[in-house]
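[job 0412] stage=complex_fold ligand=(2S)-2-hydroxybutanedioic acid status=START
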Amino acid sequence: MSVFAAVPLAPRDPVLGVTEAFREDPRGIKVNLGVGVYQDERGDIPVLDCVRQVELAMGQDTRPHGYLPIDGFPLYLATVKALVFGTGSEILDRVATVQGLGGTGGLRIGAGVLAGLNPRPAVLVSDPSWENHEALFRRAGFRVGRYRYYDPERHDVDTGGMLADLAAAPKGSIVVLHACCHNPTGCDLTESDWEEVVKVCSERGLVPFLDMAYQGFGAGLAQDATAVAQFAAAGQTFLVASSFSKSLSLYGERVGAINFVTASADEAARVLSQAKVTARTLYSNPPSFGAKVAAQVLADPALKASWEQELAGMRRRITTMRQALKTGLEQAGVPGDLSYITTQRGMFSYSGLSPEQMRRLRQQYGVYGLGSGRLCVAALNPGNIDYVIEAIADVMSQPDAGPAD
Ligand code: LMR
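[job 0412] stage=complex_fold status=DONE, emitting structure tokens
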């Protein structure tokens, strides 16, 4: 009798499982709009010029492959802090930063440290949220609830519902917030909405946990960190998971971080010690290549300036694709106001397509998105957009036949 005999088959991951299914699809014409990965106009994941320059320079350098410290590459940690909180921010001495395996790894270290609190607080995520938020916090031992976030009628944030739910949350609850480019809806809070959220978190004693995976894909690096700046200015203690997967196009290198904003330098040292225990027991110490690349780009003013320009180029291309998608669907006769396609920000369009329509898109056309209706508009390009428009317009014109499988 095998020890694994009773192990059930887990369903595919709702995001990365789509890529698995896409890869297995033998059809010649197919489009992966599932995972949040930016692709250029030829459909390639770009190697940013700033990254290429650092890699070429590193190619000459054959240093030994030793271990990094448990908390990560020191220059990387310093540059992450400066990027997330602003160079010279006066809170930096009470921030503990640990390199993470992407933003997800940062979230997991944060969850691991918070799981040590007694009593263990509940976690609230937005409704809807990135599927892995709920899964990750549950795995780390938390009860996970939801706060209202998205109003499907208006294709916008239900700010009133969100604030009411936060005001009613048990004191000390951890509130997972998307700093920018909300995943999956693409609908962000305005600056004044954030002021209200900061206020309610402070009044209710909630613990904000910001996920900033898409910094630079909304309006710009500094603009996308507005929420972080507001929580910092309010003197709150909070967490920020950050990532360079998207912004430096370093997906597979797993370059992220977790930043704990504590009340004092002494508290930061204690939190850092616990974060290191968490990291050590999960994977010991982080990989070095991506962190060294990111650190060198961020620490060099010319490379950083070039990075900002490349990010702006990616934003512009996404805007162009959003516009083309909206116009194309209108011309194909899709009824209703489609302006939400161009007002949503970041990599995703929350299309409003039903699970059944998403299933048809996949089965009939080989166009893969998430069951929630999320489509990655950052994977559209001049070579696939007409096909995608035709496919979406067709499934929208068919009567909804009931629940998807
Ligand atoms: C996504 O939502 O597509 C990305 O954040 C990739 C992931 O890890 O799910």
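The radius of gyration is 21 Å.
[job 0412] exit 0
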